[in-house]
Amino acid sequence: MTHSLEISPRPKVDVEHAAKLAHDLFAIAGTISELSSHQDRNFRIVTQTGDVVLKIANKSWRLGALQAQNSSLLYLSEQVNEFTAPVPIPGVNGEYIQTAVIDGDELFVRLITYIDGETLTGERYLAPIVRADLGRLAGQAAKALEGFDHEGLTPGGQWDLMHGVAFVRQYLDSVTEPERRKLIDQQVQQIEAILANVEDSLRIRAIHNDVTDDNTVGIPDTAHRIRPNGIIDFGDFTRSWLVGDIAMTAASILRHAVDHPFATMDAIRAYHHEVPLTDDDVTALWPLIVLRGAVLVVAGDHQALLDPDNAAAVEPLEGERRIFDRAESIPFGLAEAVIRATLGLPSSATVAKAREELTHATTLLETPNPACVVDLSVESDALDDGRFTEPGIINTILAERSVATGTAVSRFAEPYLSRTLPISEIEPATIALGVHLSAAAGTSIRAPLDGEISHRTNGRVVLTTAAGLIYLDGLSDAPADGTHITAASPIGTLSTGTLWVQVLAEPNLDPAPAFCTPTEAIGWCDVSLDPSALIGVSLRAPSTQRSELLDRRDRSFARLQEHYYDEPMQIERGWRTHLIDTNARSYLDMVNNVAVVGHGHPRLADAVNKQMRKLNTNSRFHYGAIVEFTERLTELTPPELDTVFLVNSGSEAVDLALHIAQIATDRMDLIAVREAYHGWTLLSDAVTTSLYDNPKALETRPDWIHLVAAPNPYRGEFRGDTAAGDYIAEFNNTVDSMCAQGTPPAAFICEPVFGNAGGVLLPEGYLAATYEAVRRVGGLCIADEVQVGYGRLGHHWWAYQMHDVQPDIITVAKAMGNGQPLGAVITTRAIAEAFGDQGNFFSSAGGSPVSCVVGSTVLDIIKDEGLQHNAATVGDHLIARCSALMNNYPLIGAVHGMGLYLGVELVVDRETREPATAQCAAICDRLRELGVIVQPTGERANVLKMKPPMTLTLAEADFYVDQLERVLRDGW
Ligand SMILES: Cc1ncc(COP(=O)(O)O)c(C=O)c1O
């Protein structure tokens, strides 16, 4: 028997030799190929009765350990489990474990069934659900093995974390990089000390000990994410600390392109659901994850020295180092606090005690007036008009607010809007772990508790108290280092007028950051205490985890009016091309075609405010704003289209346009294209046939609606060079048959760029020919410009202009009001007058003074800020960059559109054009994590719709494409 920590190279067995062993020992024959292994030799054999794995153990294996493995697999095979595991197959002599002499050594040979599926091996991104799958699987395996034991299970294999510290120390010299070697040494010392406090109470059991990315398999879900549900390798099976199982699983997640080490919490939460972790497990868990990383690095470097030709040992080194580095980057106290909060467990004893001590604190100031508590969150009125981007804004606002009461103070755990980052794939550290206190310079400050003073080189004064460490930044005249001070006695004076106050309950985490990311906040806001007692007012910022708000929305608001994302972030501010959630995370907004001039535009807000204070009434009164706005609109259209109706939405505009056409022609029948969306009112819905919006659309059309093929040359009925002619021919047939039936068309309506399909450009000549066909029989042509018009295409103001045609009626909305309800129908005087046969037209809010001021101001901004030109430049750039992605990523089938109305169409196969619907949804979810809001569109929801505010800059466009590329490369 070899020493338990010894590492041996793999047996020298090639494929022919393995085939012979399989034949001789197990009477198995088939197509054989080698599988990767760190220390053994494994071969997959495809046989007629199913696939099996031949396993030749390296010489350090003990018979007892292998018997224990087989026995555990047989034990599992007798249960009904939610996961799959291999089943051992006996040899020709009836024994499960055979022997063979290889290179002079007698080695053990086994055969087990092959579990089909793909592993998560590699570095690809793992989605939260996949991370949870891994944790759940580890928990299920642990649960299933609960009653199992075997005499061959002796602890102490190299992967057994109970012996991890000893293993790392024994082989530490093999670590090639001196810095990492030093770091591992330091970490292992700390880990040893933490484990010493809890190891006596950690549960010891038979555990799988390796439910990781490499050792689990699953089949891809519809979004092509592998969902692990099978465990394939029981080679590290041992009797050890139960919590070690989830440490292994969590560590394996850190190899992958996840955004934060706390991505492991999805797995830990799912594991805890199966096997509840104890208090001591929680203390031990992160140290064990770091230890696992250290073991991997040490073993990897050692194995690479021993067996440099073994790719299975050499290639994973980078990933193993990443596991250690990422795990090690998190202080143990913080990780414990995060795990506790994630699992809903109470704070650690140290934190609980500090919290209790803090309730006895006296206030820092002896002020007569209570401090004014200042809101610095995303919703703060003080930060409107982009003020949050001004340097030094926090001090400015606090100083302004302290004028009245003498003191102003910010809130604890507040996400500071001023700390948001407009273009960032990682969450910025926005959450305040202390408070800013503003008072007159020179104000005297008192010690809140008994404590000892120390000074830091950065000017910080620290008071060490029974409630932990109290940081005071901005204090002058504090007593010297080491001074003991009693509560309520003077501790110094305010130097600049602003004091940063932070209470750290867990001294091991000193120095703590002043701000942390929202992901880390559940831990940092536990170990940093709410300093309300030090100020004398309640300072806790309202929770940003307002899940109850979504429930309330569901209760009071029609659920059919859906929201983006299953678990939406709460967006409470927009600024230029960004939307900002309540954690002060900014997202690049790639979908808001309504907010053309960007979010929160002060010029627009001022214009509304001014007009609202003067007059807002209906268009039956006579006022200047309506004249000015309608004149401005008609300046944008050909001279014949000189008459405007003002309404409140795109649906109303389409409804009115169709109604006008029916009255003006004295006909009922309408032609519309399939797969289009035009609105929800009765008439606009009648021409809406998008199955995405209404799966029954085609069966429920009235008989006066005549549908023609969706003019989509990429995936429509007609494709290729002859597509335009075929679409036109089909259109002409429709017109002819309508006329033949005595129901010629009143109008034909379509979008001049196929917006609902994701910005697909119509076949060349289509619009000219169809308009001609309709007019030939006395019908009218309606261009629905609600989505694609108004400068968004960059190279044209109206989308119809790219086809050299002129409609009889234009419908417009969305962009006109930049989100304010505003819509218009623009037509000729004659058509408008003909509509008068049916009486007057009146819309209460359509054309109101405020709406008209909004409309005119939006036009001013588009012109003054050159937004149409910007849409052309940035749009061309986006098209070029997205098209370039097609060279590397076959998932992109096409890039559609023009200017800032674009679509990236995702397909499973470029030939068949099978839509990649689930992938599209998953990619959107992943892009949200990377700070981008983009959504699927099209009948098959497989097109990434890109129709951002027209303020999108080149840098923002690059950020978007970079993130999209990252997702395509690393996975979703
Ligand atoms: C082409 C088109 N027409 C009309 C409408 C309806 O506009 P609204 O939502 O303002 O009623 C939409 C809305 O998406 C649209 O895309």
Account of the protein in words:
- By secondary structure, the protein is α+β, with helices and mostly antiparallel strands.
- Helix 3 (about 130-145) runs antiparallel to helix 6 (about 240-255), helix 5 (about 180-200) packs antiparallel against helix 8 (about 280-305) and helix 6 crosses helix 8.
- The protein is flat and about 100 Å long.
- Pyridoxal-5'-phosphate binds near residues 751 and 786.
Morphology call: flat
Beta-strand percentage range = 15-25%
What is the tally of beta strands?
41
Structural class: alpha+beta
**Helix share, percent:** 25-40%
* Average predicted confidence as pLDDT: 95
Largest sheet: 9 strands, mixed
* Number of alpha- plus pi-helical segments: 27
End-to-end Cα distance, whole Å, is 46 Å
Task: Show unreliable segments.
Answer: 1-5
Cofactors, ions and other ligands in the entry: pyridoxal-5'-phosphate
Rg calculated over all Cα atoms? 34 Å
